[in-house]
Structure formats: structure tokens, C-alpha cells
Amino acid sequence: EERERERDSQHTERDREARKHTLHTLATMSRGLREFGLRVDLGALIRNFLRLQGQHAKENCAAVVKANGYGLGQNIVSKALAKAGCKTFFVAHVSEAVELSKAICPHMNTIAVLNGTLQDEDIFLKYNLVPVLGSTGQLYRWDRYGKGAPCIVHLDTGMNRLGLRQEDVTEATNALLAKLNLQLAMTHFACADEPDHPMNEKQYGLFVERCNALSVLCNVPKSTCNTAGLFLDKAWHGDLGRPGVGLYGGCPTPSVQMEPVAFVSVPVLETFTVKPGETISYSATMTVERPSTIAVCEVGYADGYLRTASGQAMVTVCGVQCPVLGRITMDMCVVDVTDVVSMGESVKPGTPVEVLGKHQVADVVAGRAGTISYEALTSLGQRYARTYIES
């Protein structure tokens, strides 16, 4: 019996030590995992909002939070912006608006739906949502089913997308608008990111002309500017700005830099050396020209690291810009870290790689993929662990 008690005691001690080791290992893994994924700086988001609001002629801006807050988390970024004083939020789909109404009170804030109504007026009324009406059909339905609730009217001035068109500027439309609880009249610039493009002045002139022709709109507040529009002539700003991409670190024009908000870091999975003449990744599109140290990194097009950047993409390892070699694949990409190693830095499994952030800003990353920061941000994959900080 004494030997059995001693044996049981030894087993218990071994179990205790094994459990401590397991917990230590999990804690270490957790600390390591927090280095990787998508980190969203809400402090930078707020500073961008305040900067853009200060740029508006009347220092009055809404926030466009569609597409899951440009990929960064609609409800969390909206809460942060609401605390910073934002009162009006634009989304594209009614489903986004319903979700947003759970995060910010629609009785204290305006949640507007850019795509308007689609025979779903009852949802708008249930959740106190504001439709952006862009056709005479939508105007008629809101007059019939909207029960006097607030709405916004959209005038098309050249985008040829949504909005009342020239042929809709009639006395009948004016009479219909007079029956609605209009909160805002808006249009959308097509070329605001090109400050000298003649389309900008043309669109503003058409907006003024059509608002005057629809006389009901003369005393309704106006909204014209997205992020880039805020850096056009202040006489064109109207009463409310509608910045989107600039809030999240996208640059509205080449001369205007916003503060980065999204930071993506991924781990190195493996390193090895390759000889001149060897090829990298699918289709063997890249042939190594020098003895090289290669790092395989855990990011691919399934994470929103666009395949079109193959052969152009760069990442940052230990503070050094490093080229991505060959094709970007679904889950991985291959990086040349030869220059990092030659400086005496150690690159091994677990070494962090900056894919998006301070040294890899959204517009540059997007440009290498032949696209814009809007797409780069909204493509950020769901596999990233999202962490929110406030610098």
C-alpha cells in the first residue's frame, strides 16, 4: 500500500509538471500569435477622421463604413468614430445597416443606406434607417410606405450609377420631393482623386443646376465630397462630407498622406538557400540569379494578398524591404531575405514579416497589384486574427 501511495504521488507530480509545461507552451504560443494578423489602430482612425473633418469647409463629416468598415470591422470602427463625435454613418447594403444598428444607437445617430430601398421599406422603419433614394420609383415607394420617416435624395451628375437623372428633373418629381422628409441632397464626384480633372467642376455645376431646378431642394442640406473631394475647391463642399478610404489610411491624392490604420504581420514558416538557376513557385515564372536565402511566409491570395502583385510585391523583414519571388499562392508567398541575412540578422520560422503597415502603406501595396487601396483593404481575409489598439 505504501509503494502504491508513493507511485500515485509520483504520477500526480508528473501530471502537475506536464500541465505546467502545457500551460507555459500555450501562453508562449499565445504571445507569439498576437504578433501576427491584422492590427487596427483606432487612434489613427480617429485622428484621420478629425483631420478630414477639419478639411471640410463647415468642419462637418459623416463616416462611410460600408464593406465591413473597409475590411477593418464595421461595428468596432463605428463605435470609435461615434465616440470621436461622428453622428452620421453611410453603408451600402441594408443588411450592413441592420448590423450597425446593434453597435450604435440609430435614435442618436443617422445610419444611411447608399443603395436605397428595394421593396424593403419595413426594415428601414423597424431599425430607424435612412434610405438614399436614387430613382423616381424609390421616391414613390417611400412616399407611400415610408410613413414620413427621414430620407436622402441622390442626384446623378455624371457617374451614371445611382441617382436621379436629367430626365427626372421635372415638376412632378419636385412635387413628389415636397411630400418627403428630406434630410440631405447628395451627389458623388467621379474624378475627385484627379484634382484638375474638368469633370469635377462640371459635376458640381450640374448639381447646383438640378438642385435649383428642383426648387424643393434649395433649402435642403447638401453633400458632395468623398475623401478626395474634401481636397477640392471648398466652395464645392456643401454641408456634409462623406469620407471613406481616407479614414482607414488610404491616400485621397498623391500629395495627401493619411495615417496608416491597418497593420498586417505574418510569420516566416521556413527558410532555406537556393542556387542560381533554380525556379520559384507555380509556373516557374521566376529564376534565381544569385545564391539566395529564401523565406516562405504565411500569407497568400486567400488572405487578400492579391495574386496580381506577383513579381512586384515587397514586404519588410527586420526593417529591410524584400521582394516577393514568383507567383503568390493561396496560402503562402516566397520572399528573398538574402540582404537581411547578409546584414547579420537572423530570419527563422516565426520571424515577423510586415505585409501592410508603416513601411508597406496601403496605396503602394495596392499599386504593386495594379489596383487601389479600396480593394486592398476590403480584400483583407477573415483568417487574420484582428486586434484593436488605440495609439
List descriptors.
single chain; alpha/beta; 7-stranded parallel beta sheet; 20% strand; 391 residues; 6-stranded antiparallel beta barrel
How is this structure best described in words?
This protein is of the alpha/beta class and 391 residues long. It is 32% helix and 20% strand. The protein has helices at residues 2-33, 42-55, 66-70, 74-83, 94-100, 121-126, 136-145, 171-177, 198-213, 338-342, 362-368, 373-378; strands at residues 37-41, 63-64, 88-91, 110-113, 130-133, 150-154, 181-186, 222-223, 262-274, 279-280, 286-287, 292-297, 314-317, 320-325, 333-336, 352-356, 386-389. The strands form three sheets. Strands 2-3-4-5-6-7-8 form a seven-stranded parallel sheet. Strands 9-12-15-14-13-16 form a six-stranded antiparallel beta barrel. α7 (136-145) links the parallel β5 and β6. The longest helix has 32 residues, at 2-33. The N and C termini lie far apart (62 Å). Residues 21-33 have low confidence and may be disordered.
